[in-house]
Design goal:
This protein has about 120 residues and is α/β, with parallel strands linked by helices. It has one helix and nine strands. The protein has a four-stranded mixed β-sheet, with no helix packed on it. A three-stranded mixed β-sheet has the order 3-9-8, with no helix packed on it.
C-alpha cells in the first residue's frame, strides 16, 4: 500500500472519530428511524387502545367513530378540542413522558399516551 493511501485512511478514520465525538457531546445523535403514525379509535365511548406507547416525533391520530363529539385532552400537554362524529385530530409527540388524557365531554373515557 502506498504511503499516500495510508495517510488518507488514517485521516478519514480520525475525522470520523472526531465527528462522532462532537455529535455525542452535543446530543446530535438521534435515531435514524422514520417517524410513525398511530391511530386511537374512539368507539363505544372508549379510546382504543386505552394506552399507546410511541416515540418522540411520531404522530397519533384520534379518529371518532362514535355518533357524538369527543375530545382527547391531557391537561397542559395537548387538547384536541371537539372532535366531531366521523372526524379526526392528530398530535405529534414531542416530549417524553406518560400523559393520561380524558374526553372532557365524557370524563369516564380515559386513555394514556406514553412518549419514549
Amino acid at each position: 500500500m502506498h504511503a499516500v493511501d495510508m495517510r488518507r485512511r488514517r485521516f478519514a478514520a480520525a475525522a470520523a472519530a472526531t465527528i462522532a465525538a462532537i455529535a455525542g457531546a452535543t446530543g446530535a445523535r438521534r435515531s435514524l428511524a422514520a417517524p410513525k403514525d398511530y391511530t386511537v379509535v374512539i368507539d363505544g365511548f372508549a379510546f382504543k387502545p386505552a394506552e399507546l406507547s410511541v416515540a418522540r416525533g411520531d404522530t397519533v391520530v384520534w379518529r371518532n367513530d362514535d355518533p357524538v363529539p369527543h375530545t382527547a385532552t391531557a391537561k397542559g400537554v395537548f387538547d384536541s378540542g371537539s372532535i366531531a362524529a366521523g372526524a379526526s385530530w392528530k398530535y405529534v409527540a414531542k416530549k417524553p413522558g406518560r400523559y393520561p388524557y380524558v374526553c372532557t365531554f365524557h370524563p369516564i373515557m380515559k386513555g394514556t399516551l406514553v412518549v419514549r
